[in-house]
Amino acid sequence: MKIRKMGRTGLKVSKYCLGTMTFGPEGWGCDEATAQKIFDKFADVGGNFVDTANIYGLGLSEEITGRIIKEKRHEVVLATKCVAPMGKAPNDMGASRKHILESIDASLKRLGTDYVDLYQVHGFDTTTPIDETMRALDDCVRAGKVRYLGCSNYAAWQIAKSNAIAKEMGGARFDCSQPQYSLICRGIEYEHLPFCREEGIGVIPWSPLGGGILTGKVRRGKDAPDGTRAALGPSVQALLTEKNYDIAEAVAGVAERLGKSSSQIALAWTAERRGVTSPIFGARTMEQIDDNLAAAEVELDDESRQLLNEVSALPSIYPYNQGARRREIQKVMNLEGQ
């Protein structure tokens, strides 16, 4: 598997990141023995980037992740997150100094390590001043518990303001963003992705398979197979719109023409987008990890890329359409000047 740089930093990570949300939960995830096999297969082909969060299984995912990577800890770029509620008390959630400092210690204990490579704020906390959050995160870095900082589900302006405050305080900044991004969710292309490219911030998208819609298992006029996310989750059911069916059908068509799986096509499209560092995929079975890993060798041809881009295109809205408008004006002015 190819290696990429995390934004402007010197950190090197694999082209794909192994997500561990599926490690542990009964009825949907996999057991620890299977998780170990999945990680070993990922590592065997050169994968070195693993992402978890304290909220996954209320700590169970971190515990399993820590055990399965133990023998290769020094080779793994390990990421986890905080902010989500881990209890019912008022301070058991959020990005306050109290919660961040307690959360990093709890995560390190569950992971069985004395540091994480990437520590991410799982969502923007409107109840806590940004300077409090960034100072607490910087203290985690200075204490040697964290190597790099990141955020997930932040708007571009929230990252910009956080990093400006961090710079003003002389502290560590966010060097990574983890947004949702796939063929059925391209909203970050308006502002978030261009901003991260400009600022040298790595981007590690979650749900590049659109909650399972782009795996080829979801097709128009057919019920999603039992046990799939589309069959189990109401949040995924809400995404079964006519446009998303069109996208899923297009992905399936490209996959059939290229002799690949739908998952491989969807992952390859996301991984090749300018500014994307490492899409995150999960797996519950060996069949899934084998299928997903094969995406590392997939290269889309121009015809496939154009088809997928067109069927999933975002609406042209203000002010993000002004670049095209300026180009049209310049074109007319040049013609008139000839």
Secondary structure layout plus pairing:
Layout: E1 3-5, E2 12-14, E3 17-19, H1 32-44, E4 49-51, H2 60-68, E5 77-82, H3 97-111, E6 116-121, H4 130-142, E7 146-152, H5 156-169, E8 174-178, H6 192-199, E9 202-203, H7 229-232, H8 234-237, H9 242-258, H10 262-271, E10 280-281, H11 286-293, H12 302-311, H13 322-337
Parallel strand pairs: 3-4, 3-10, 4-5, 5-6, 6-7, 7-8, 8-9
Antiparallel strand pairs: 1-2
Helix pairs in contact: 1-11, 2-3, 3-4, 4-5, 9-10, 9-12
Structural write-up:
This protein has 338 residues and is α/β, with parallel strands linked by helices. 42% of the residues lie in helices and 12% in strands. The chain is built from 13 helices and 10 strands. The strands form 2 sheets. Strands 9-8-7-6-5-4-3-10 form an 8-stranded parallel sheet, with helices on one face. Helix 3 links the parallel strand 5 (77-82) and strand 6 (116-121).
Total number of helices:
13
- Spell out the CATH superfamily: NADP-dependent oxidoreductase domain
Q: Strand share of the residues? A: 5-15%
The averaged pLDDT comes out at 93
Instruction: Supply the CATH architecture.
Output: Alpha-Beta Barrel
Strands ordered across the widest β-sheet:
9-8-7-6-5-4-3-10
Listing every helix as H and every strand as E from the N terminus to the C terminus, the arrangement reads: EEEHEHEHEHEHEHEHHHHEHHH
User: What is the domain total for the residues?
Assistant: 1
The dominant shape is: globular
The assigned structural class equals: alpha/beta
Instruction: Name the CATH class.
Output: Alpha Beta
Tell me the total number of β-strands.
Answer: 10
Termini separation comes to: 51 Å
Q: Determine Rg (CA atoms, Å).
A: 21 Å
| Major sheet | 8 strands, parallel
User: Spans with pLDDT under 50 lasting ≥5 residues?
Assistant: none
CATH topology: TIM Barrel
What fraction, in percent, of the residue positions are helical?
40-55%
